[in-house]
Write a structure and sequence with these properties.
Elements lengths: L8 H10 L7 H13 L2 H9 L4 H8 L3 E3 L2 E3 L1 H8 L2 H8 L1 H4 L9 E5 L2 E6 L1 H8 L2 H9 L14 H8 L2 H9 L14 H7 L3 H9 L14 H8 L2 H9 L13 H7 L3 H7 L7 H15 L8 H16 L24 H5 L5 H16 L6 H14 L3 H17 L5 H16 L6 H24 L4 H30 L6 H13 L9 H5 L20 H9 L14 H5 L9 H13 L14 H4 L3 H10 L4 H11 L10 H8 L15 H13 L14 H4 L3 H10 L4 H11 L10 H8 L4
Antiparallel strand pairs: 1-2, 3-4
């Protein structure tokens, strides 16, 4: 049994040079990996021969090595790079003296994407190394071994259109219908990427053209939306059916929505396409040409809309049913005759709205593709400063997306940008619209919190949820600041916005680092979107801080480093040009109940964490230490037992008041003392890298830039110290392997 520990090469060199007695064989293991990566056959053979027993050889040959975001065994990286002779060597158990795991799973990068759980065979197939694929299969590699996302080697080959590898894998038993986590098959990805020869081969060898992905799409849908007539024809010839997906979209409608005119023309002539189906396809094609951000063509739009209308009016007449005006489209009712259509022929705006109406009717409100074009049309209005039309369309798109349970993080930020633009250009911001999107933002935050509590399936899902939550928290703060800016101009904040702020505060959302809304509001490093938003919003913001506190934000909230908002604001650097913000926030936090003597995980109070004399003066002028606080400090200072001896409500109160450390403060008045003592201690043998029980070195514990400069100027870190740090950092075993005189030396260099 052995453990895989990823150590940087430069650190490993230092450790081995300083402590040659340590049992570290990973350097030569790394050499083997690098040699496999570069295809150095003779070198890798010589390196392997230096290991005298099977266990050691197995250890280095089956270890995963970190490599710029990848984790690979020598076999995986050699297969990825296509080094056939190295692959053959590693697969020869007699020659290498151990069994190399052909099914080992690593993490590899393909076209910028990290593939988790990839085997050597998957890598070879995806990279197009036919001879390596042959060799691995010959040595018994599992042909359908899946990645974490259930992608097989055959799928990897199909994605890139590698017909030779596809045919070899199929001939050796690969399942062409095996789907990935989205139920997307090899035939689907080959159709989408327009690999005609691969599609033909898969169909000839029994691939099922009617299997459906989770979205309900078949291979025919994917080929149709890309406009590949040859592939669609081949699929239909092999029994593909033009069934609708889960949103009611047939391959014909998918082609129309993507402006694939040739595909639409081809498919409407097929016998299974009814008159009604052909009319809807032509209408959707015309509607899409009227609004598409890439293939916009008002002339083609009118041509197809006229053609569809003529078909509707031709006996037997097919009338449009249940037409309803939508406010976002200016209550436009679709044309119901050729005369109606001709009446708007010279009115591009009316044609745009006609197109949006048609798209919503044909595609359905729950179609996730529907909002994109609505948002695009709204952006065109924003560019021409027609903000009323823009926000009406975007609010409608937001409503559609939320109804279909689609994440709207980017949509919400888009409103911040347009409201900021409206504010800076002197346009009135309707606070009822701000309230609508703030309500949606708070709802999204609540959804993210609930999903995180339920426990997402993968680390990637957790990361995505945390990122969306953080962005939505920032967006909520942007909306609050915009509302306050509008209020300052004379518009009172409506109760509905106050209600949402209250709801937001009491959800108490936190970022991945534990920061609360209050932490973000007082932090000068809080990011502000740079598209118009930064012209209205800046942090720290005292008005936002005061509003959050007013409606219940906890001034004692702690992030993962136990910093309170007070710890954060005292680090504000613009103390001259923005004294009012610093003073107002500190006073507001203290008046709301923030403890000036609360300590973070480094043992610092807000006074200790202050980076300017101005912040210190403000804190001291506001300091009113209660007897209760002084008592709690003493309990922590002298490490008195209190658990089980005081009411439970006092336990957390005592905990926030310690531990306490003594720090040199008078660095300006007594620089000589500070400098002399530091230099004397170092000259007498003090280790600058020795850590305390909180894991801090002296440099970490320094509370002033002056102390840091003195320490750095005197720092002469020996290789021995660097080695000891790395031994402790990676928790390497050293007891009994180094002379006893070195044991205590290593111990002081880290927890």
């Amino acid at each position: 049994m052995y453990f895989r520990i990823f150590i940087k090469m430069e650190e490993l060199d230092i450790i081995i040079n300083a402590f040659p007695d340590l049992d570290l064989q990973r350097e030569r293991g790394r050499e083997i990996y690098e040699q496999a990566k570069q295809g150095l056959f003779n070198s890798i053979k010589a390196s392997i021969s230096q290991y005298n027993n099977e266990q050691d050889r197995s250890r280095v040959l089956n270890c995963l090595y970190e490599d710029d975001g990848q984790n690979c065994t020598p076999l995986i990286i050699a297969s990825r790079k296509g080094h056939l002779d190295v692959v053959r060597l590693l697969l020869n158990s007699k020659e290498v003296g151990c069994n190399v795991d052909k099914e080992a799973e690593g993490k590899v990068k393909f076209e910028g994407h990290a593939i988790e759980g990839a085997t050597a065979l998957w890598c070879a197939a995806g990279a197009g190394h036919y001879d390596v694929v042959q060799e691995l299969i010959l040595h018994g590699a599992t042909i359908d071994h899946e990645t974490k996302n259930k992608s097989t080697p055959l799928r990897a080959a199909c994605f890139e259109g590698r017909l030779k590898i596809v045919s070899f894998l199929c001939e050796h038993g690969a399942d062409p219908d095996k789907a990935n986590k989205y139920n997307n098959t090899c035939l689907m990805i080959s159709s989408y990427n327009m690999h005609e020869h691969v599609v033909d081969y898969l169909l000839q060898h029994g691939a099922n053209p009617n299997l459906k992905a989770l979205c309900g799409a078949t291979a025919c849908h994917f080929a149709a939306e890309k406009g590949n007539v040859n592939i669609v024809e081949n699929l239909l010839k092999h029994g593909a059916e033009m069934t609708p997906n889960k949103h009611g979209m047939t391959p014909l409608l998918c082609a129309a929505e993507r402006c694939q005119a040739m595909m639409v023309e081809h498919l409407i002539g097929r016998p299974e396409v009814s008159k009604e189906m052909a009319i809807e396809a032509l209408e959707l094609l015309g509607a899409s040409f009227a609004n598409d951000n890439v293939q916009y063509d008002i002339g083609l739009s009118l041509e197809y809309l006229r053609r569809a209308m003529r078909m509707r009016m031709a006996p037997p007449v097919v009338k449009k049913q249940n037409l309803v005006g939508i406010p976002a489209y200016e209550n436009r009712i679709e044309s119901q005759s050729c005369e109606d259509l001709e009446s708007i022929a010279d009115n591009p705006d009316a044609i745009h709205m006609e197109g949006l109406c048609i798209r919503e009717r044909v595609m359905g409100k729950d179609n996730p593709e529907l909002p994109y074009i609505i948002i695009f049309r709204g952006a065109i209005f924003a560019d021409s400063l027609r903000f009323d039309r823009c926000t009406a369309l975007w609010l409608h798109a937001l409503e559609l997306r939320r109804a279909s349970d689609t994440t709207v993080t980017k949509d919400l930020l888009r409103f911040v940008q347009v409201f900021s633009q409206m504010f800076t250009t002197g346009h009135e911001i309707p606070l009822d619209q701000v309230e609508n999107v703030l309500t949606a933002t708070v709802g999204e935050i609540e959804n993210h919190i609930n999903k995180l509590k339920q426990g997402p399936e993968t680390e990637e899902d957790v990361h995505m949820l945390q990122e969306d939550l953080k962005q939505d928290m920032l967006t909520a703060l942007y909306f609050i600041k915009i509302s306050l800016a509008v209020e300052k101009k004379g518009q009172p904040l409506p109760d509905s916005i106050i209600k949402e702020v209250y709801r937001l505060v009491h959800l108490d959302p936190r970022t991945a680092s534990g920061a609360s809304l209050l932490h973000l509001a007082v932090n000068q490093s809080t990011p502000v979107d740079d598209f118009h938003t930064n012209e209205v919003v800046k942090f720290p913001c005292f008005s936002t801080t005061k509003l959050l506190l007013k409606y219940g934000a906890n001034p004692q909230a702690m992030d993962e480093k136990r910093n309170t908002p007070l710890h954060v604001i005292v680090g504000y650097t613009k103390i001259v040009e923005d004294f009012v913000t610093l003073h107002t926030i500190i006073v507001s936090l203290l008046e709301a109940g923030a403890h000036i003597d609360c300590v973070n995980s480094s043992g610092q109070t807000a006074l200790d964490a202050a980076t300017s004399g101005v912040a210190e003066i403000i804190l001291k002028s506001q300091s009113k230490m209660s007897l209760k606080c002084l008592a709690a400090q003493s309990v922590r200072k002298y490490n008195l037992s209190y658990q089980g001896q005081v009411p439970q409500s006092l336990v957390s109160f005592i905990q926030i008041h310690g531990p306490l450390f003594v720090f040199v403060k008078k660095i300006v008045e007594d620089f000589v003392t500070l400098h002399t003592i530091i230099v004397s201690l170092l000259e007498a043998g003090a280790h600058i890298d020795c850590v305390n029980s909180s894991g801090q070195t002296a440099l970490d514990a320094a509370t002033s830039g002056v102390a840091e400069i003195i320490l750095k100027s005197q720092s002469k870190m020996s290789l021995k110290c660097l080695a000891a740090q790395s031994v402790r950092k990676y928790n390497l075993s050293y007891q009994g392997q180094v002379p006893q005189s070195l044991v205590s030396f290593i111990q002081i260099h880290g927890p």
